[in-house]
Each structure stands twice: as structure tokens, then as C-alpha cells.
Amino acid sequence: MLDSLPYELPELVTRAPLDTHTSKVLPEWVDWNGHMNVAFYVTAFDQASGAFMRNMGLGRRYVDGKLGMTFVLETHVTYDREMREGAPMRFATQLLARDAKKVHLFHEMYHGEQGYLAATNETIVMNIDYASRRSAPWPIPVAARLEELWQAHKDLPRPAKAGRVMALSQKK
Amino acid sequence: MVELDLSAPFDQHRATVLPEWIDWNGHMNVGFYVVAFDKATDTLCNQFGCSWEYTREKIGMTFVLEAHVTYDREVKEGDPLRITSQILDHDAKRLHCIHCMYHEAEGYLAATNELMMMHIDYETRRSAPWPEWAMERIDKLAAAHRNLPAPSQAGRLIGIKRKK
User: Fold this and answer.
1) B70 CA to chain A: closest CA distance, Å?
2) A113 touches chain B (CB under 8 A)
3) Of A86, A162, B30, B32, whose Cβ has the fewest other Cβ atoms within 10 Å?
4) Lateral strand order in the sheet of A117-129
5) B63 at the A interface (CB within 8 A)?
6) ipTM of the predicted structure?
7) Is A103 in a helix, a strand, or coil?
8) How far is the C-alpha of B6 from the C-alpha of B84, rounded, in Å?
9) Is B158 in Cβ contact with A104 (below 8 Å)?
């Protein structure tokens, strides 16, 4: 476990949910159906996870400094409404759970101007030791920041779309 | 339409990890696993005539409603991929399936992707029943897959397990 990180950490944002990440649908993300392709929703959400990790102090310098990485273990997406090329996106991110090595996140993607919910993404991200490429506990300063964020997020209501199991019988 | 392939699971799709699919961690990025899986979805949908030509001719489309991905092992640039597809369930408008991605040379499971897809009318962009000829083929594929055991990754609920 790393006791410290050899760079200055950004000021911690503890808003609940986190709302710092915004983005835009790129032309190369659009498929033959004329909307953002399913895979690039995952890319867009992965960037929102990246923003979450930067807030924790685990940005590019964490990887470039060969200290560690974060890997996604599992992800669940609901596609709620189409997004077209150039559409602005804003994200809301809630920390649902955390342990010594992992976080369980829930992202919501909204159309930045029209306000509608476009998609949700529930995801598990794990801390990885750079050298061994195996799981490792969060660096100590990161664990402390995670705890502070958890205190801000733990009383948020659980999102309705969290914890879904796929089946045809879920029909509404 | 292509000849119907009733092998179980459906096992036609092959791909190679492209250089632009690699991220700063030196492996295929999470988004591009889904790019690779989505192409396997096209190969599967081609079996019942609802792939590229179907949309190009402005007849209809298939939209994904929900997706679940497990990332089981890393794959690197240039790795050969084999993706199998299994139909789990279907109804008049929807198809529930799971893809398994393997490293084709080494044989290990790299990822799985469970999907709920819906048939869409081109004009209205709203859900519509599968065309009769597509439904016939989906029925046959589903029947061929019916006795396959469902992969353990199907029907998963995401969470951090409490340590004992």
C-alpha cells in the first residue's frame, strides 16, 4: 500500500452527487442508426469515472508515475434516450459503496441543454498496483479522501436504476 | 439472407484488437470491449436479417436497451478475439442475449456482454414487433440455444461483496 503520493492532490470536491464532469458527443461516436453508439456511452461514462478518480487524486500522474492504475471490473448500462452528434452531456456521480480496493459508482448522463436522462451506468472500479498489475489497497491519502466523500454521499437515496438484473419480465 | 447457422452457441464472429482501442493502461479500453461486442451483435443480427442492410434500406433498426459487461481479463493490441453469442430469451419485440469474448489463440475468457435489444421501426424510431421472417429465424436460433447452460455471468447484480 502506498503511504503517500509524490504529487499535489487537487482540492477535494464532496458535492453529492458529484457534478463536475461534462462532455460532448463526438462525430466518431455516432453509428449507422444516426445516434451515439452503445459502446461510446461506455466511453463517455468511463471518462466520468476518470473525473471521479482525478478528484480522488488518481489522474494521469498516477499512471505516468508508474504508481498504479484503476481497472473497471464490471459495468451495467441502461440506455434511456438517444443522443445525437454534438449533444452536450452532463454527468451526476454517486458513490454507492467502497472498500479497501474498490468503489461502486453510479453515473447518470443527462442531455446538457434539454435536461433529459440519456443513460445510467453502474460500475465497479478497482485499484491496481502498477508493477504487478494486480489489485491493491487504495493509497492512504486516497482512502482518506474516499472516506470524506462517502460521508457526503452515504445518505443520498439509492438510484432506482441501481442494482438491476436483466430479464424480459422487467417489462413495464 | 445468410444461411442460418444453428450451432450452439453461435460462433462466427472474429476480430483483432486494434491499436486505437488501447488506452494509457496498455490494454483494450473498456469502451472498445463494447465496440467489439457491438460488432458481434451485428453478426448475430445478420442471422435474422436485421443488420446493416436492414437499416441502410430504411426498414428498421435494433436498439440496445440495457447492457452488462464483465471485464474478466486484459487483452492487448493485436490479440485475436473470438466472440460467441447465446440467445437467452426473446419476445415479439425484444431479444435477450449474452456474448462471450475469448482470446482466440490462448483460449481464456476476456469479457462477457449481456444485452437486451429491441426492434425499432425506422420511420417512427419506436419499438415494433420483429418482422415475421426475422421472428422465424430468431425462434430457430433460440430453440437451438435453449438447452445450453446460461453462463454464470448472465443475470448478474453489481455490488461489492461484504468480506467475511
Assistant:
1) 4
2) no
3) A86
4) A22-24, A88-98, A102-111, A117-129, A68-79, B60-71, B109-121, B94-103, B80-90, B10-16
5) yes
6) 0.93
7) strand
8) 12
9) yes
Strands B10-16 and B80-90: antiparallel
The partner residues of A18 in beta bridges, in order of sequence, read A93
B56, closest residue in chain A (CA to CA): A32
Domains annotated for chain B, with CATH where assigned, are: 10-145 (3.10.129.10)
What per-residue confidence (pLDDT) applies to A169?
76
- Distance, in angstroms, between A40 CA and closest chain B CA? 6
Can you name the residues that pair with B100 across neighbouring β-strands? B84, B112
The residue-averaged pLDDT of B136-153 equals: 96
Taking CA atoms, B78 is separated from A158, B27, B69, B100, B106, in Å, by 41, 10, 21, 18, 13
How many interface pairs between A and B have CB atoms less than 8 angstroms apart?
A: 113
User: What is the percent of chain A where pLDDT is above 90?
Assistant: 97
Q: Best interface-test mutation with B: which of A26, A41, A76 has the largest number of B CBs within 10 A? A: A76
- The number of beta carbons lying within 10 Å of the beta carbon of residue B59 is 14
Check if the beta carbon of residue A164 is closer than 8 Å to that of residue B66.
yes
Category of B40 on φ-ψ map: left (φ > 0), alpha (ψ -120 to 50) or beta: alpha
Closest by Cβ to B25, choosing from A69, A97, A98: A69
* Cell numbers placing B111: 469479457
Q: How far is A170 from chain B (nearest CA, A)?
A: 11
Q: Structural domains in chain A?
A: 22-155 (3.10.129.10)
Span A142-152, average pLDDT: 98
Percent of chain B topping pLDDT 90: 95
Is A163 in CB contact (< 8 Å) with chain B? Answer: yes
- Report in angstroms the alpha-carbon separations of B54 from A93, B41, B42, B125, B164: 37, 14, 11, 14, 52
Q: What are A77's strand-pairing partners?
A: A121, B67
How far A54 CA sits from the closest chain B CA (Å)? 15
**Which pTM value belongs to this model?**
0.95
